[in-house]
Structures are given as C-alpha cells and as structure tokens.
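Raw record, unedited: Gene product 88 domain-containing protein
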Amino acid sequence: MDSVRAPRTHNKSDWKRTDWVTDFVAAISNDKYFRWFDSGDVYSVKLAWKIYQVMAATPNCQHWLPTRMYKFAKFAKVFEAMENLSNVVVRYSSDSIHGGLIDGECTSTIVPHADSETTGTICEAYARKGKCADCRACWDKEVSVIAYPQHGRKMAKVAIKLAS
C-alpha cells in the first residue's frame, strides 16, 4: 500500500509549487494522450485550474479527465473551460456499479461484467491485462458513454455483498 500512498502524498503537495504547470507541460509535451488520475479525483478548484493551464498549454496532447466532482457547483466553471478545449474530454463518472447512467455529453459508468447490456462502449482494457492498446474511446468526445466492467478486490467485495 505504501507504493500507492507515497506518490499520492507527494502529489497532494507537489501541485502547489509555483513551477508545477511549467514542469508538467514539459513532462508531457511529447505525449499524444494523457489520462489524469488513474485513481482519485480533482479535490480542489485551485488544482483544477492548474490542470486546465496544462491542458491549454499542450494542444497536441489529448487529455482525458474522469471525475465525480461535477456534482459540486464550485467545479462547474473550470470543467466548462476544460470542455471548451478541443483536446480535452472531461468524462463525468456515475456512482453506479450496475450500469446506471447520468446526464452529460461524455460520461462513464461501471457495469457488472464485460458482457453486460449497456448503451455505452464497453472498455476492453481488462481483456488486455489493463492496457488500452490502440483504443482511444475515453479520449473521444464522440463517445458519449464508456462502460467499465467491475474489477479489483474492492469491487469483488461489493459484488459479493450485493449478491447476498
């Protein structure tokens, strides 16, 4: 757990540095695709505006920001600014683990299985050992819903609890 906790602790203070935006832009300037937050979320409006600055300064990089913070009005302005950038998809995540959908142009949900019925595009990364490979659906503004099959120990515990 320390291998996860230590970087999170570092990141929580690192973004507050004056040079964070400049350093981040330099770090991803050659990337074609970038996913924000493989775990966690934008917990601060100040952080969100710094992320926006990075996105705006890297127009040749496609950014995907999955988030549940859309539920809080204080994030509306910054998410709208991000969504207006042609290289950014802010994908609002549903709290559902049964494929429940939410309103929005670009959203995501969790479904029980990869073969679950859904109106969305099923993420196939878990059939490829967690790798996207050449799939870029999450970064595509034309893909309205991404459905992620449940995975991981925590989701397995939730599924068992709900089944009993």
